[in-house]
Amino acid sequence: MSGTNAQALPELKLYNTLTRTKEAFAPIDPAAVRMYVCGPTVYDFAHIGNARPVIVFDLLYRLLRHLYGADHVKYVRNITDVDDKINARAASEFPGLDLNEAIARVTFTTEAQFHDDLEALGVLHPDVEPRATEHIGEMRQLIERLVASGHAYVAEDHVLFSVPSMPDYGKLSHRPLDDMLAGARVDVAPYKQDPMDFVLWKPSKPGEPGWPSPAGIAAPGRPGWHIECSAMSWKHLGETFDIHGGGIDLVFPHHENEVAQSRCAFHANVMANVWMHNGFLQVEGEKMSKSLGNFITIRQLLADWPGDVLRFNMLRTHYRQPIDWTLKGLEESAKTLEQFFDAAADDAYPRPAPAVLEALADDLNTPKAIAEMHALKDHAGKKALAGTLAFLGFAPGPLREWQASRAPQIAISETEIATRIEERIEARRNRDWAASDRIRDELLALGVALKDNKDGTTTWEAKR
Q1: What are the beta bridge partners of residue 131?
Q2: 36-52 b/e (C-beta count within 10 Å ≥ 16 → b)
Q3: Distance of CA 113 to CAs 42, 229, 366, Å?
Q4: What does the pLDDT read at residue 418?
Q5: Residue 3: is its pLDDT beyond 60?
Q6: Per-residue pLDDT at 177
Q7: Phi/psi at 176 (nearest 5 deg)?
Q8: Is 319 a domain residue?
Q9: Is-above-0.85 flag for pTM?
Q10: Would you say 264 is a known binding-site residue?
Q11: Does a structural domain hold residue 86?
């Protein structure tokens, strides 16, 4: 490994979903480390569950850049801009417009909203952010290869991947064949040769976006979901690359089908050497859903919390574990982050602390990294703490602004407060309890809470 610092660099170990083990990471080419992560479908504001893989793999991206050099890492995160949900929203929101123009408005607006949210979360922009609709040509090429090699077939203007043509299908998800068959048989199209076969290309319905179809199909069509990521990763990272990431919910069928398409198209043993998946997110102990009324977007949370608090709250739980998103957790994250910034030096070391780096190199062990950060709060570690916070994507400005906006406002000067306290002390000395109580209540109405201490003094604090 090579890096930009004289500091000794730890060995990176990552948990690989493909092998179900934590392994030493060995890039195909240390001078060109390549990572692909499934990005959003741009039809509405992203919810907090969408933020988890973005934050997790942003952290991994930062770590890879530190270990291998920023110029030697290529991170691709796609944008899915062709989807039934996009079509439905476009038709509903812009009923008078041509559907293609309406779709363009929805996708570009939603993508801009997504980028604004991620900027607030301290997320770096990936090196490449391809849109699905810009890679239809690559999708057709892959489909043509699969048909020519017998791994796909045409039926009723659809192109379908033939799952039985791949003997080790299911290797990534490790799902029993019966489970996969049970899911596939929920709604089996009559043109499928096997219940588990999945769509690579389908005909466009009237009014929907459509492109010239592959495999000799005359009618215009549109790609299936899975082929998009195979095409975009191939275009920007090659036939085989180092790391593929995403949420645990994508392992099957999306990632399993990506593996099938790419491996069969290129006759390769693997698509990506390492597959990483973050755990599920629930809200206050329940699965997030609109029906339960606990569906929370990133934008809604940013209205009440600085992005750094959301980011820190996400990183407190190890990425592979499920996370329970709670108000209490956010409050604890805000308090801890405030402590870190209060303790950190103004002048930072240009790198993370070695102990923190060691923890992150152990499969992104963020809970241990945060524990190590607490140990840096004393005088000797203040510069290292500042450098670590910057490395992790945290800056004090947003938190300080948020604290100032939440600070209680008092309608009286400190000089006047001191005068009124002296008047109250005098009233109590004269045993004029009515006057003492009146002054206390008047100050409380102005946002000042008094406290009579055991040593006979009186102190005050602004009331929230």
Answers
A1: 79
A2: bbbbbbbbeebbbbbbb
A3: 9, 22, 28
A4: 93
A5: no
A6: 73
A7: -60, 145
A8: no
A9: yes
A10: no
A11: yes
Quote the number of domains for the chain. Answer: 3
Mean pLDDT confidence for 271-293: 92
Select from 357, 386, 405 the last residue of a domain: 405
Structure tokens at 15: 């948990």
Residue count of the chain: 464
Sorted by sequence, the CB contacts under 8 Å of residue 41 that are 6+ apart come out as 80, 81, 83, 85, 86
pLDDT digits (tens, 9 = 90+) for 288-343: 887 788 889 999 999 999 999 999 999 999 999 999 999 999 999 999 999 999 99
**Of the candidates 295, 278, 307, which has an alpha carbon nearest to the alpha carbon of residue 118?**
307
Say whether pLDDT at 462 is over 60: yes
pLDDT interval class at 38 (50, 70, 90): very high
Structural domain ending residue among the three candidates 281, 299, 319: 281
Same domain, 360 and 435: no
* CATH number, domain containing residue 107: 3.40.50.620
Enter the tokens of residue 362. 């152990």
Q: Is 255 annotated as a binding residue?
A: no
Q: Which of 232, 273, 362 is nearest to 28 (CA)?
A: 273
Q: What residues pair up with 22 in beta bridges, in sequence order?
A: 15
Neighbours of 276 (CB within 10 A): 25
From residue 101, alpha-carbon distances to 104, 111, 208 in Å are: 5, 15, 11
SS3 464: coil
Task: Tell me: do 144 and 275 sit in the same domain.
Answer: yes
**Residue 344, token pair as written in the block:** 């950190």
Residues 338-359 have pLDDT tens digits of 999 999 999 888 899 999 999 9
Beta-carbon contacts of residue 373 (< 8 Å; ≥ 6 apart):
340, 353, 356, 385, 388, 389
| Listed range (39-43, 151-155, 206-210) with the worst mean pLDDT | 206-210
CA–CA separation, 273 vs 14, rounded Å?
11
CA 5 to chain centre: 28
Confidence of residue 219 (pLDDT cuts 50, 70, 90): very high
- Same domain as 337, residue 234: no
202 is a domain residue: no
Q: Where are the alpha helices (DSSP H) in 238-381?
A: 256-266, 298-302, 307-315, 327-343, 354-361, 366-374
Q: Which domain does 454 fall in, by range?
A: 414-462
Alpha-carbon distances, residue 363 vs 66, 125, 203 (angstroms): 15, 22, 43
Spatial distance between the Cα atoms of 153 and 91, rounded to a whole number of angstroms = 32
pLDDT number for residue 454: 87
364 touches 63 (CB < 8 A): yes
